[in-house]
Amino acid sequence: MAIASSVSLHHFSHFLISNSQQLKGFGHGCSARPRYYFSDNPNNGVRPIKATTQSAPYPLYQPAQVDDSSSEESYILYGILKFPCFDPFPKFSKLEPADPDFYKIGYVRSMRAYGIDFKEGPNGFGVYASKDVEPLRRPRVIMEIPLELMLTISHKIPWMFFPDIIPVGHPIFDIINSTDPETDWDLRLACLLLYAFDREDNFWQLYSDFLPGTDECTSLLLASEEELLELQDADLASTIREQQRRALEFWEKNWHNGVPLKIKRLAREHERFIWAVSIAQSRCINMQMRIGALVQDANMLIPYAGKVLSS
């Protein structure tokens, strides 16, 4: 009987480094095109993995190789096999392969997955090893995700985005700029996500079909008052109500009847905006980003990686 192994994203202390030497034309966003690789905290005892478009496809079952050569464009590599995570029972027979379009929309944009399958079951999407593997202590690459597919915004002013999809003068930037730099990272990322959904030919416009809807998302931010009353933790329920109120007030302030249509259509109902905030909160990955001599913390939404986190 085959033994199924689960694959999960292992969190290291990542540092995002760019080979770019110059900054130019920042305006309200980052127009430079940095090249990144990730190096792990030395205390973790794991060698850094560098990926480039010049390297051959990375086999899941071969030792990691570190390539110090430079390239025009690099990809973030994720993943480590976590063992033991075995289940000899055939419950995985209930899983169905993911919609082929889920692979296609990423593969045509150079996203790659190695040794894993995306499958859908009663609990939604998950990531599973495509075959049994021996327990390994060294990390293995399971995905390559182009930076251009991610949504990134810096923690602090001046707001920098990569890729910089917001045109100069667009009112969504004024909404982002009105947020509190210290506390409102999720509101900013939600605004950026909603804008990406609306942008013609943007990857996230397609990827949104594979995100959990308001009736599927498990975030307590979307819980009704009746559901919150069922919580046994009164402090947690109070915190969730405060978060719901905060998101609702932000939507009411910025999505009133007088706003331009290009803003109104992003979230015509407050439920849409609160859902976007819940996606940002549950799928954001925080990293440090260096562009030239400038280092900033950044919030990132990384497609496909969320499926690893939920496995």
TrEMBL record:
InterPro entries: SET_dom_sf, SETD3_SETD6_MTase. GO terms for molecular function: protein-lysine N-methyltransferase activity. One of its GO terms (biological process) is thylakoid membrane organization. It comes from the Eukaryota. GO terms for cellular component: chloroplast thylakoid; plastid-encoded plastid RNA polymerase complex. This is Uncharacterized protein. The lineage of its organism: Eukaryota, Viridiplantae, Streptophyta, Embryophyta, Tracheophyta.
